Give the backbone structure.
Amino acid sequence: MANIYGANHTTAYPSEASSTALAGMVESSESGGRVRVLYDRYTASGGATNNDDVIYMGKLPANATFLYGVLQHDSSGSPQFQVKVGTTEVRAAATATASTAVIFGKAQACLKTTAATDITITLSSAAVASGKYVNCMIFYTVD
């Protein structure tokens, strides 16, 4: 059985990977960085939020690395929520059960931003009634 090493491990510990290269620096967002969270809550007021409405939930800073997200709502019916980081879909439009947190974005983990990037949620298939909410948390690193 052979020992094999990831790219960051080889950069940081080249002698363990039988490399003659000098030890290098690994991006702090990939090793030893701090996880941060962007959290926002939208509460519908003065009428329902309708199909194809886009809810802006915040911005990831430049040079952030997206890790994953959590979505939760208390709306009745079966609204579908699509979540995007900029133009990249990190959650396809899908129903989310009321009051149940849904983790999304595993396939897009390590998506990097180059500028401040909007986090948006697009609603479809049902309205979010007045007084009902949508919560979104985005976990990311920048350092």
